[in-house]
Description:
Helix content of chain C: 55-70%
Strand content of chain C: under 5%
Strand content of chain B: 15-25%
Oligomer: heterotrimer
Strand order of the largest sheet of chain C: 1-2
Number of strands of chain C: 2
Structural class of chain C: mainly alpha
CATH superfamily of the largest domain in chain B: Response regulator
Distance between the termini of chain C: 21 Å
Number of strands of chain B: 14
Helix content of chain B: 25-40%
Structural class of chain B: alpha/beta
Largest sheet of chain B: 7 strands, mixed
Radius of gyration of chain B: 21 Å
Number of helices of chain C: 14
Order of helices and strands of chain B: HEHEHEHEEHEHEHEHEHEHHHEEEE
Radius of gyration of chain C: 21 Å
Number of domains of chain B: 2
CATH architecture of the largest domain in chain B: 3-Layer(aba) Sandwich
Amino acid sequence: MKERAAGPLTSPPIRKMARLVLLLVLLLAAARPAAAQDAYLDALPGLAGGFGAQAEAVERLGAGGDPRALAVLRALSEGRLMKRDSTVILDGTDAATGQALDVTGADTVRINNRVRSALRGALGRLQLVSTNPDERFAAAESVFRSRSAENIPGLEAAIARETVPRVKERQELALAASRLVAPEAAARRQGIATLGGASSEDARALLLEARGANPDLAVEIDAAVASIDTRLTFKRAAETLFQGLSLGSVLLLAALGLAITFGVMGVINMAHGEFVMLGAYTTFVVQEALRGIPWLLPWSLPLSVPAAFLVAGLAGAALERGLIRHLYGRPLETLLMTFGVGMILQQAVRLAFGAQNREVISPAWMQGTLSLPGGILITQNRLWVIVFAILVLLLAIAAIRLTRFGLEMRAVVQNRRIAATMGIRTGRVDALTFAFGSGIAGMAGVALSQIDNVSPNLGTGYIIDSFMVVVFGGVGSLVGTLVGSMGLGVLNKVIEPWAGAVLAKVAVLVIIMLFIQRRPRGLFALKGRAADA
Amino acid sequence: MTLSLTRRAALAGLGGALAMPAIRPSFAQGAPIKVGVLHSLSGTMAISETALRDTVLMMIEWANAQGGVLGRKLEPVVVDPASNWPLFAEKARELLAVSKVDVTFGCWTSVSRKSVLPVFEELNGLLFYPVQYEGEEQSKNVFYTGAAPNQQAIPAVEYLMGKDGGEAKRIVLLGTDYVYPRTTNRILRAFLISKGIPESDIMEEYTPFGHSDWQGIVSRVKTFANQGKRTAIVSTINGDANVPFYRELGNQGIKAEDIPCVAFSVGEEELAGIDTKPLVGHLAAWNYFMSVPGKPNDDFKAMWRAYIKNDKRVTNDPMEATYTGFRMWMQAVQKAGTTAVNPVRQAMYGQKVMAPCGYEEEMRPNHHLTKPVMIGEIQENGQFNIVYKTPNAIPAENWSPFIPENASRRG
Amino acid sequence: MSEITATPVPRGIPPRLLVRGAILAGIALLAALPLLNLLPAGSALRVSDFTVAVTGKWICYAVLALAIDLAWGYAGILSLGHGAFFALGGYAMGMHLMRLIGPRGVYGHPVLPDFMVFLGYRELPWYWLGFEHFPYAILMALLVPGALAFVVGWLSFRSRITGVYFSILTQAMTYALMLAFFRNDMGFGGNNGFTDFKELLGVPLNTQAARSGLFYAALALLAGSLFLCRHIVSTKLGRVLVAVRDAESRVRFLGYSVTSFKLTVFTLSGMMAGLAGALYVPLVGIINPGEFAPGNSIEAVIWVAVGGRGTLIGAVLGAFSVNAVKTWLTSFAPDLWLFVLGGLFVAVTLLLPQGLVGLFRRRAR
């Protein structure tokens, strides 16, 4: 507003000064709350009305620029705003007069999507001037989505002031989006050009939406859309790859423990999935235990990792010492026995925790998406699961390659008798190896609690896939497990878009089955006797 | 705490009478009335069905505290069909032929109902089925106390296309690949086309049960939505697959303001397993929400909490349907003066109950209830903010007019 | 593994006679069940409809167990996908039963089953043709599982995939089939599968006559399968199979074509399972993809282990006893039955490597 007022001054100096002073006074008068206050007070009772009235009131409050509107709108979006009849109550005071009020009997103001959408635009406009760059970024995002020609001056001012590049970039897109609905054709054309340089699907959607309203600009819009599309193809390929790796990392986590218990020890543990489930429930228990200690709560997930390793590892050790060791050399019987153990574990968890899903909260650093150059969007939790899977793999390799336990384990696998004569307590090594594999399954459970249901059935969904990964990758080879899981994950995601989720999975299973016919020992076959189950 | 209550449930299941409170009004005479409970307590469906088992046991306890029905005590017969469909048929036969139950409350999935249907028809049993389903069925041996598609799906889509719902012009139909989503989506597709939405603006996709990797589908939905028209998702995704689906929606930043998603199988119980903050504003359509105001619901919730002894446990739509069905059955038995199936069936028609949803529901001769339709937005606390409800309870159209093969049934 | 012998050393009354007597007595007892069902309601000996129906189901399971035992107990081929053969046989019969419904379906279409009408099919898919004929359906119930077993067996045995690898492979096979059959687009009714059958061979299915007839058919199948298996294991084929089980490489070095022996028995076993499935479906009145679930196949293997692998009577005994326990416990202890059943599996594999039959034998000595 000030910028426009300052624009057309072309008179001699003194008159110019006088006029400037006058103008300033006038401007101050206009900017004084009195005028805005009226708009504010006028709009306020609408918030206590129906959804339609609320949306309208929000628009008006957002346009008015009254500083108190921001507080009210924030409270509304956070569900703190109350009302009694048509009085709007903000933090125990009358939002119109600022007087303290008794809030008993007042209702929370409820909103729906329509109001929320209006609120996003209004808050965005008001927050464009925030001192916090994150807030400004979010505001630009909101304005982008709520696009309206009214935003243009505010955005232009904000861009001029902005110093943080990523916020500026976002603001420019928001400006372009707003220009798209501007009344002047030139502004619209400018908006189209800017949006054509973006590589987001949102921009594409906006352009297509504008196409109907602007038949005269169809050529420009089509060109912009085509330019976006080229970049989107690359972006989609990158995202498919990421999704494949993400699925692969889930498979890797689920299969890694199995690669040790089955691949190294030759023990078929059908209760493996249940160890994964135990890990997920441990995450839940740790989280509940930390509820009393609020500052630790955000760290419950990292803390769950060792806990889950211990719980599943101990369960594994107990299973190995108590039952499995009596069945060495009889892998098929072990398979059947552990199936029974799995049934028992599942029902035990169901009775202890209830059949319902348990809620494991995602910490803030795992939520949302990360945008990479080129508009590639990566979901944070999936990214963390990939990182975690790689870490667990490195841990497993390190434990096997670098520690004394790993040395003894390899010795026992290669030649049990000679290892025993060298003074290695083979029984203890067996128990530790099995516990180690089970513990890794438990850690997988921590990760799976972030992307799947924490329910007694959690493990059953992964058991067959894990076996296939281990067999496909080559029994006894951790690198094989890595390559196998990632390969299958990507393959699955590449097939999925045109075959559908189910057929993709079936196709992958059939491909593995055919592959195993060709190479019965998998991708990375171990040479020698160790591979003979 | 959880342990003690499940142990209690186990006792109730084991011994029936053991779980009854000590203070009993004296029962006039006669053998106890046996109530079969045919809900999965293990396997994949246990997650949803155990709460219904508890609801039936609660109702039996409540009825006995009132002096039973016809002066006779009610006695539960609980079996576990273990989410295994042939076992459902076997257990149904056992309940009817061996335990000789007078009435059965049970089933959740359509396939379990289809599996027991021939048994109930052959042995002339009485089944109360409490879950919203695809319709296209009407057995004289079943009373359907959940919603038919017209009592849930169509009003929800109308809402999405209306001003308050965001005026959606493109619709994504996402579902688990089984008969309920297939039918519902077929009906919805016909409905959308009748409203002038072209085929090209409808996307339909099915996933297997327990689908957990939604990355690809959610990004395809995003692409579909970014074609310049307001888009909404209609989800008939079943049970377990919902948690990873909503997580993915949240993580890919799909907000309800951009692409609202209305679900027909997600209630308070399912939300209890999800962090609902990223989901605020997404919708569900039911005939009951736990957040319904009013005395009938307050009483229902108080009754549930007193029974389950856990303030955190929620109530949901199928539980309410079980409650309503049970009350109606009691009234019908009182009216018929017997528990024999044929007179009770006749007495059921026209029974009315003030349901916890705050409306009086009536059993129509088509074996379905009249029900109000409510649409709720998910709130941060895992409850629903009711943004729309029909003024009256509407009758069920179990034979949908949007399915051409049903033409012969109308008129 | 090798301590299990197909024929124990005779001592006292020849065990073979004992076993034969027990089998005959068992079959006679089972044969009497439907007759006892006809007794008046008050009679002490009367057997309920439920018992007849459930026993009929167990008999089908027993045939499945026999099929598994033939491959596992005698030839050492542990298939964790036998449920797939069973289910495929069931689907073949289910398709026949669906065709017989005819215009009595909900939508009254003269040819198409309800679910097809509903999914908008205009005509029958080609693979449904011919299923209106009973002999064709039975033939398919034999051929389709047989062909699948042959292909999977051929591919695997040729590449010398043995032991747990074969088990995992067959498990993946049944899992893939389950996922595929769950798809509604496959034309097999998706998750709901087939239900609401009306009649078979002109007899309405919800009558006592049909139930008794099916019961006797199943019993005849069981007796026939027992006879066939007995024949196989007591001829040269059986002896080679046991040799393959105990020392595959040695048999190969002796010049036998191990692959073809294994392939023969595995295909035969698959066909037997298919036929069992075909009879199972009219008895329980439903077939759906849940039958392909890997857990089902493993459970069936466990019946054999519980009864005693490598003995035919053991497989039958195992199927009956485990399922009896399951039927009883799912009513008696609905929250705890998984503990008992799981515990039973653990105990049997640990303590009774030869199953219940081994227990009797030990007693006998």
